[in-house]
Amino acid sequence: MKIDDTDHKIIGVLRQNARFSIRDIAKKLKLRHSTVHVRIQKLIRDGIIEKFTIKLNNKAIGENFIVFVFISTEKIIENHAFHHRNIKEVFGITGEYDLVMKCKFADIEEFNNFILDFRKKHGLKKTLTMIATVNLKEEI
Can you tell me whether residue 131 is helix, strand or coil? Predict the structure, then answer.
């Protein structure tokens, strides 16, 4: 489905704050609230908007130790392996590594326990970890 400039504007406002009411979005974009409502429903129905969610403060919830784990493997890792509470995102990538995971932990000790267990449990060929030193931009 093609989305037009108005849809992009609505999505932009929702990205700022998904709690904005339809009336607030309409006022901000100078549209009728019925137009905004219909368009949001269409974006949901067409799978453009998958869900509305929240962004948490990493430090406040004890997940301020962010690590990117690059994984090289010779076998398929089952999807259920990525349902661990510390694994936030997983992508298939090109190059020397097959996957990259974005993980969040309370501290280095929690990360160390996780990575040792994850490598052993899934028989990984090789991993490379990179610790984030500053969070410049993070989206849902």
Answer: strand
Instruction: Quote the CA–CA distance of 90 and 101 in Å, as a whole number.
Output: 4
Mean pLDDT of the residues in the chain: 94
Distance of CA 91 to the CA centre of its chain: 10
Cross-strand bridge partners of residue 90 = 101
Instruction: Give residue 132's identity as a one-letter amino acid code.
Output: A
Q: Does domain 65-131 have CATH number 1.10.3210.10?
A: no
Give me the DSSP letters along 50-105: --------TTTTT--EEEEEEEE-SSPPPGGGG-STTEEEEEE--SS-SEEEEEEE
- What are the residue boundaries of the structural domains of the chain, listed by start? 5-45, 65-131
Give yes or no for residue 140 having a pLDDT over 90.
Answer: no
Residue with tokens 């997983």: 90
Whether the predicted pLDDT of 1 surpasses 90: no
CATH of 5-45, one of 1.10.150.130, 1.10.287.110, 3.40.50.1820, 1.10.10.10: 1.10.10.10
Q: Which residue has the higher pLDDT, 125 or 82?
A: 82
Tell me the pLDDT tens digit for each residue of 20-30: 999 999 999 99
